[in-house]
Design brief:
about 525 residues; 18 helices; disordered N terminus; eleven-stranded mixed beta sheet; two-stranded antiparallel ribbon; globular
């Protein structure tokens, strides 16, 4: 085993505390508001309080709606918010059932923000695109339906890169969402609206989708916890498709306990409406608590592989430092940490973009203004197509063109077939490493949140930011993004990768890391509104 250079845990904690206090003083000096109310509430807090009767679901809902009204004009994380009176009536109904001693669901009264590519009955669903402006879904996505059946209340739909195509939420057809930690920076993407809403305390939890990192990267940028489950663990029915063999619905929250709680509801046996959903037994919530004794080596026996391929050239030195300190912290908790290399790792990014864009070209062909999407003007069929497709944004058009080219006659074998062969190679290597190691550790992205407009003129630079996350989608395995530290007043996360359908082990390791890392707890338990 190759051990990492040791830095005392006390010095790491002291550095993190000093960084956090500097951040806090700077925000106070700029007349920023910190919500003491929201800092107390995680999704688990809300559910436990409502079910026990110590919290009123109606009061909780009113608090979050007030915060959205007060702060979302600056952050712009939501595309639409439900009718206030309707939401309060739904919450009040939960309170009445609790008062009568009737059974309530495991998520009773929990406000949840939902990414705008998940269908929600009676609410707008646009996938962040003008192509679907005004569309109101007649049904719920299976993931949304399961949340509602468990007692959760959908508070609104969050902003996203159009059809999930982007890493900054700058590609939304409506507006740019801003990072609550710094309004001049992006929240990540494509689930940037969901991450920003949770980070700013506008919702205790959210649903997102992850095709190549779209839950994990914005969680890293905004300092929240995001889980990309195993492909097939959560039904994709009602998710507006980008890359069908890659898309995964997953939860985002303020703690590992939050995402564990939500995954229990989201997962389930095979959905007859989704042929790709698994018939595995549903994920069982782990009963995680905050009582973790870091001095008792709680991770003894756990083997962690630190992916060297994700460090070094192209990665911000400070981000790399956070990952190395995280590896050191895991070792101090009893884990066996090795540096490992996956020779095919770097091939994943180009293979991913060929496959994802090819699938997008096929999936988005339905939005022609005749079958689906806004109807264009003109007197001829060609005019209708031209005017209708003009509603797609520049990034969506770019990806459709590249995907169509890769699938065209004469190029299929050279691009799409070869990309699928690389996918097989990447998957085999990743799965082989997970036979030796319980979890793999890497950065989530090469850098912390970048400035709005910084990369919009260079799509290739934006694409390279997905290097650490796309292989997980190619292989279909689960991965967790957890805040680990604050660097230059911005949160930085780490990525833990686990075995297929073994989210339990992944979440246990993440929970121990989170509960024994004071910097992580400082990030996730405090909301900053600039």
């Amino acid at each position: 085993m190759q051990r990492l250079a040791h830095k005392s845990s006390s010095s790491v904690v002291a550095d993190a505390a000093a960084t956090f206090q500097k951040r806090r003083k700077r925000l106070v000096g700029r007349q920023c508001r910190r919500s003491h109310t929201t800092s107390k509430y995680s999704a688990c807090d809300v559910v436990d309080g409502v079910r026990s009767g110590s919290l009123s679901a109606k009061d909780v809902m009113a608090m979050y709606l007030d915060r959205i009204e007060r702060h979302d004009g600056k952050i712009r994380s939501f595309l639409s918010v439900g009718d206030r009176q309707t939401l309060l009536r739904q919450a009040e109904s939960v309170d009445q059932r609790v008062a009568r001693g009737e059974g309530v669901g495991p998520l009773a009264g929990l406000p949840v923000a939902v990414k705008d590519n998940l269908c929600t009955r009676g609410m707008p669903t646009t996938a962040g695109s003008r192509m679907l402006e005004g569309y109101v879904s007649p049904h719920d996505a299976t993931a949304v339906a399961r949340m509602r059946q468990a007692g959760a209340i959908v508070v609104g739909k969050t902003n996203m890169d159009e059809f999930g195509m982007g890493s900054s939420t700058e590609n939304s057809g409506y507006h740019v969402t801003r990072n609550p930690w710094d309004l001049e920076r992006v929240p990540g993407g494509s689930s940037g609206g969901s991450a920003a809403a949770v980070s700013a305390g506008l919702a205790p939890c959210a649903l997102g989708s992850d095709t190549g990192g779209s839950i994990r990267q914005p969680s890293h940028f905004c300092g929240v916890v995001g889980l990309k489950p195993t492909y097939g663990r959560v039904s994709r029915f009602g998710l507006l498709s980008y890359g069908s063999s890659l898309d995964t619905v997953g939860p985002m929250g303020t703690s590992v306990r939050d995402v564990s709680l939500l995954l229990e509801t989201l997962s389930g046996r095979k959905d007859p409406l989704d042929a790709t959903s698994s018939d595995r037994p549903p994920f069982a919530e782990l009963g995680l608590t905050g009582d973790v004794d870091g001095g008792s080596a709680p991770l003894r026996g756990i083997k962690v592989g630190l992916l060297e391929d994700t460090l070094g050239d192209g990665v911000d030195g400070k981000v790399e430092g956070v990952v190395l300190r995280a590896a050191e912290h895991l070792a101090s908790l009893g884990a066996h940490v090795d540096r490992i290399s996956l020779p095919s790792f770097s091939y994943g990014l180009p293979a991913y973009y060929v496959i994802a864009l090819s699938e997008a070209s096929s999936n988005l062909s339905r939005y022609d203004g005749i079958r689906y999407g806004a109807r264009g003007g003109g007197d001829t069929l060609r005019d209708a197509y031209v005017h209708g497709r003009a509603l797609f944004g520049a990034e969506v058009k770019r990806r459709i063109l590249m995907g169509t080219y890769a699938l065209s006659a004469g190029y299929y074998d050279a691009y799409y077939k070869r990309a699928q062969q690389v996918r097989t190679l990447v998957t085999r290597e990743l799965q082989a490493s997970l036979q030796t190691y319980d979890v793999l550790l890497s950065p989530v992205a090469p850098n912390a949140a970048f400035r709005i407009g910084e990369k919009t003129e260079d799509p290739l630079e934006m694409y390279k930011g997905d290097l650490m996350t796309v292989n997980v989608n190619l292989a279909g395995v689960p991965a967790l993004s957890i805040p680990a530290d604050v660097v230059d007043s911005l949160p930085v996360g780490i990525q833990l990768i686990g075995r297929a359908f073994d989210e339990a082990s992944l979440l246990r390791v993440g929970h121990v890391f989170e509960q024994t890392n004071s910097s992580c707890l400082s990030i996730t338990k405090n909301s900053f509104i600039i």
